[in-house]
């Protein structure tokens, strides 16, 4: 009996680790691709300077592609602001959220490093680092990033909420990213994603106003989560349920719930086979 419990515990731990590892790799890969294609579209080639529309469309398409690839593996957060919003909305545990952000920052750095390595030296210039326009104050920059991220996170919640839709959120989230770039490029180069800003800044070592691209998006994400999950479409989670999700206990319970179901289905199939044999006899 005791050995059976130990084997069951090991099975649950292995299953949980496998699921989390796959999700972390998905976040790493998705964020790396997002930075590579997005920042790559903003590089200033002498014979073909990028237009605002080109950059917005590239970020749009890149977002749609990576969301379609990874949303069933990890939820396709690809953004520390989105992860924070899901944490505030009791849709992800704190340990998983911290791991997601670490994977996103690592992926963004890897994507930026790869892009930097394949880009000619005379084209790198500022390398797509987010900067505030000279006529825009820091307060205005924070406010713009806040509003841009607010609409993005609201769109993410609405597109992934099983109560509202069951289809792929790739197109709608991509459109939201494009909308943000169509206006945000003029103010701050449009971040909406601290990982996107972090990747470029790390590679070229420019952190002059980098804090803006954390404070603005994260504040907007928290506001969006509160608006969606507690005003527009409040859920019925109790305090105990929220605490279980926050600490990660709910994930373990979910895995534990899957194991007995599998055993029941196996036993029921075996009983059915036995009945069929008896009927034949």
From TrEMBL:
It is a multi-pass membrane protein. One of its GO terms (cellular component) is apical plasma membrane. SUPFAM superfamilies: Aquaporin-like. It catalyses: H2O(in) = H2O(out). It is found in: Cell membrane. It comes from the Eukaryota. Residues 254-281 are annotated as: Disordered. It comes from Pontoporia blainvillei (Franciscana). The chain crosses the membrane at residues 12-37, 43-67, 97-118, 138-158, 170-188, 208-233. CDD domains: MIP (cd00333). NCBIfam families: MIP. Keywords: Cell membrane, Membrane, Repeat, Transmembrane, Transmembrane helix, Transport. The gene is AQP6. The keyword Cell membrane applies. InterPro entries: Aquaporin-like (IPR023271), Aquaporin_6 (IPR023254), Aquaporin_transptr (IPR034294), MIP (IPR000425), MIP_CS (IPR022357). The lineage of its organism: Eukaryota, Metazoa, Chordata, Craniata, Vertebrata. Belongs to the MIP/aquaporin (TC 1.A.8) family. GO terms for molecular function: nitrate transmembrane transporter activity; water channel activity. GO terms for biological process: carbon dioxide transport. This is Aquaporin 6.
């Amino acid at each position: 009996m005791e050995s059976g419990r130990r084997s069951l515990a090991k099975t649950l731990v292995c299953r949980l680790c496998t699921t989390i590892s796959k999700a972390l790799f998905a976040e790493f890969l998705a964020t790396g691709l997002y930075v590579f294609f997005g920042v790559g579209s903003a590089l200033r080639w002498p014979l073909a300077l990028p237009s605002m529309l080109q950059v917005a469309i590239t970020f749009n398409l890149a977002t749609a592609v990576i969301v379609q690839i990874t949303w069933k593996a990890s939820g396709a957060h690809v953004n520390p602001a989105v992860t924070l919003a899901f944490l505030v909305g009791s849709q992800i545990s704190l340990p998983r959220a911290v791991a997601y952000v670490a994977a996103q920052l690592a992926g963004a750095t890897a994507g930026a490093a790869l892009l930097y390595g394949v880009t000619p030296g005379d084209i790198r210039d500022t390398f797509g680092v987010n900067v505030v326009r000279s006529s825009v104050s820091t307060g205005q920059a924070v406010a713009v990033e806040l509003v841009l991220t607010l609409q993005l996170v609201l769109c993410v919640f609405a597109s992934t909420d099983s109560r509202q839709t069951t289809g792929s959120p790739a197109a709608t989230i991509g459109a939201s990213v494009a909308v943000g770039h169509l206006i945000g490029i003029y103010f701050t180069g449009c971040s909406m994603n601290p990982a996107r800003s972090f990747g470029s800044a790390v590679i070229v070592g420019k952190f002059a106003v980098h804090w803006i691209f954390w404070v603005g998006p994260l504040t907007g994400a928290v506001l969006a989560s509160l608006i969606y999950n507690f005003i527009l479409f409040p859920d019925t989670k109790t305090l105990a349920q929220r605490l279980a999700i926050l600490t990660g206990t709910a994930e373990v319970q979910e895995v534990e719930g899957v194991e007995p179901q599998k055993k029941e289905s196996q036993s029921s199939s075996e009983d059915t086979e036995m009945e069929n044999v008896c009927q034949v006899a």
